[in-house]
Structures are given as structure tokens and as C-alpha cells.
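To start, an entry.
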Amino acid sequence: MSKKLILQGPHGGQAVLAGLAAMASPRSTTAIDAHALRCDGIDVTKALQKTIEAAAEAAGVDASFVDADLTLADFKLVAMDMDSTLITIECIDEIADMQGLKPQVSNITEAAMRGELDFAESLKRRVALLEGLPVAALARVYEERLQLSMGAQAMLDGVKAAGLKTLLVSGGFSFFTERLQARLGLDYVHANLLEEQDGKLTGRVVGGIVDAEEKMRTVQRVCAELGIEPKQAIVMGDGANDLKMMGIAGLSVAFRAKPVVRAQANVALNFTGLDGVLAVLS
């Protein structure tokens, strides 16, 4: 199957994109917008792909090779990780900051996202450090620190307009996913529930932990409910615990992701916002 190359970046004008496109010797090019270019009719080899991706990264541009006829109409669901994907922060790190423990918790989070620690065990260790913190601290994190990632709203608007359903599945906490669901009009959410007692966190999670396996099962359950195959899902993530759900998707998107995730994803958005997926599927 023939491939198309999408070149895009917030600081990449058409002249920069055209220079990168020329390296691929496409039969035709089409400007998607001021910062995105589609190239068709490319004889793709692994060597060519690596060369273009390296040159694009040096220029601050995302280069995505996907099947030429792949469009948004091929999908029925977008599943997203929350922390450092749909939103800019790691919520647990910011909660820990309320305890003066952000460095310790952040180090564990980073190791887990790189795939160096078992996610479930790492979460238990991090949550245990939150024992005694007033629940009100969660609201402060949501109100004062949580921000949507670049292009998130535009991406959601685009996929909803195309009729896709939305799923936010997180190894983070339901306190945040439920508020984002109400705020953004998301169809499905699933995350960990922090145990509370007398207005304070106990340092424990209620029920099973939403780890990599549970994230994958959640995508499968929602697909089954919608009567679709997982290959009709776009899955976005940034950490090692997203790889299993990304692995069953029709299109996996690594957003500002760890190297292990970028290496396995179909598309990596390192410079473009989340709405870059709309250009990839144009």
C-alpha cells in the first residue's frame, strides 16, 4: 500500500516543509494549512524514512508516514491518556507538591513512564506518600495547575465533528477524569479512585489499579460496547503504560512521548499539538 508523508510543525513554514519534502521525491505535494504539507507518491524505504525523520526533527517538524488512503472516516473512537497527553501535567506530581514531596514522586513517575518500574507498584508507592493530604488539595491542582495540552480542544472538536466517540483512560485519578469529562463532553472515562477518610487521603487506591493491561482492556470494552473493532480506534499516549492499548489500535499516536513509546507508535507528535492527528488523517 502506498504511503503519504505529512510534514507539520508550529514553526515550520511552507518553505521549510517544502525543503524537507524534496528529500522524499514525492510525485505531488499539497498544503494542508500554513504549517502542514502532504506529500504523495513516495517510494518509502526504512533508510529514507529515517533520513527524513532525522532532518525533520532537527528542523522542529513532525514527519508522519501513514497509508495514503487513511482518513479520519476510518475511525470511530479516540482513546487518550490523560497526564502529559490530554493535559500538560502529571497530576500525582502536582498533588505531591502540596506535601513538599514533588521531587521524590516525580522521580518515580519518570521511571515508570520510561518502563523501568512496574506501573502498579510505582503507583502504590507514590500514592502512599500522599497519606494525610487534605482532599481539597486535589481541587487546587485542578483549578490552579491543570491545563489542556496544545491543540487538545481543536483535536476534540475535529473528531467529534467527524462523529467519533471519545475515551479518556488514565493511570491517574478519577477526581480529574470526571471533571474533564464534564468540561470537555467526553463520552467515556476510566481512572484510579483515591481512598478518602475524614476529608483526607489515606494513601491507598480503591479497587484495582488502572495499569497497562487495564488500559488495553478498557479500550477493548468500549470498542465492544460501540460494536467496533480496536483497529477502528485512534489511541494517544506518552508513557510505557500506554503501549499495550496503543498496540491494539488502528493508529497509535505518541505525544511528547518517552523514546520507548515513540519507537513503537505509528505517529509521533513531538512539536505539533494534539490536533496534528487531524492533518495526518486529512
About this structure: The chain has two domains: 1-69, 71-282. The first helix runs from residue 14 to 22. The domain at 71-282 is CATH 3.40.50.1000 (Rossmann fold). The radius of gyration is 20 Å.
